[in-house]
Amino acid sequence: MSAKPRILLTRRWPERVEALLAERYDATLSTDDRPLSEAELTVAMREYDAILPTITDKLPAGILSVEGRRVRMIANYGAGFEHVDLAAAKAAGIIVSNTPGVLTDATADIAITLMLMAARRAGEGERELRAGQWTGWRPTHLLGTGLRGKTLGLVGFGRIAQAMAERARFGFGMDVAYYSRRAKPADAKRFDARYFASLTQLAQQCDFLSLHIPGGAETRNMINAAVLAQMPSHAVLINTARGDVVDEVALADALESGGIAGAALDVFVGEPDVSQRLLVAPNTVLLPHLGSATRETREAMGMRALANLDDWHAGRVPRDSL
User: For residues 61 and 199, what is the distance between their CA atoms, to the nearest angstrom?
Assistant: First the structure.
């Protein structure tokens, strides 16, 4: 390709990455930083050579196969890609890439943050203090639990789960266990992690259950009432994966009934809307999808998307093509 391809960024990106994109391409940048509507994305498919979307941009088959489509590349900003119909993209001859790997440390840090906040009831404490309800130090006030010797159960054992395992094992002296489609003995050996072939068996054994699996049809509501019922009443659920892997109605039931002690969540079904039952539950820690929200990580994500775009423009297979 000789002429500069027309590209569309659907949201604001870090300034350094935007500057490079504008230098190398005929780039349209987002000015209002809002998700694009279905109608706007449909028009964009006809007007641009490449779209650089985020998880907030839904690209189903109907949009990807629109008549008069011009787009040949979707360079997704983020590791998750369940918002893009990959089968439809492939059928239309559209290349899709993502940005794996660069989110690992930041997301693992948020998972640890959530675990600490839930274990020490930090969310409850901050809400009490800000509301002017704190009456002073007392021996039995907001007693939480320590982490040393507790069992962290990981659902999924990829990059982020292993980064969390490293922090939990060597930083806090926790025992680590995991469930995945297959055992990974070489990786597990680093953390003395025990493998469970059954999710329910893992749920029974853990003090904290942390989710590290992709969203989508295969994992939707994977953490349901049956799994939650297997968790000890003192256990805490942590989710930095995708909101739809948890049945939020079942979770709210478990929290309200005392079936589990708490939940610490960074992702939700139907974001940015959050279940009112989760919002009012005193035993929840809720963050607004901050998993990758460090300056370093968000810039690295942009640079990875740019590298994929450069590969495509040069006629190479993008390094992170799906």
Answer: 33
pTM: 0.92
**How confident is the prediction for the chain on average, in pLDDT?**
96
Separation CA 100–CA 109 (nearest Å): 16
* CA distances in angstroms from 124 to 59, 145, 156, listed in the order given: 38, 14, 29
Token pair 């404490």 in the structure block, residue: 125
Burial class (CB in 10 A: 0-12, 13-18, 19+), 2: exposed
pLDDT one-digit tens code per residue, 145-190: 999 999 999 999 999 999 999 999 999 999 999 999 999 999 999 9
Q: Is 159 a catalytic residue?
A: no
Q: Which of 242, 298, 304, 313 is catalytic?
A: 242
> Are 40 and 34 spatial neighbours (Cβ–Cβ below 8 Å)?
no
User: Which residue out of 82, 128, 271, 299 is catalytically annotated?
Assistant: 271
CB 80 within 8 A of CB 214: yes
Residue from 83, 128, 289, 299 carrying the catalytic annotation: 289
Query: What are the φ and ψ backbone dihedral angles of 52, each rounded to 5 degrees?
Result: -115, 90
Catalytic residue status for 289: yes
Q: Are strands 208-211 and 151-155 parallel, antiparallel or unpaired?
A: parallel
Give the count of beta carbons closer than 10 Å to the beta carbon of residue 70: 15
As a whole number, mean pLDDT of residues 286-306 equals: 97
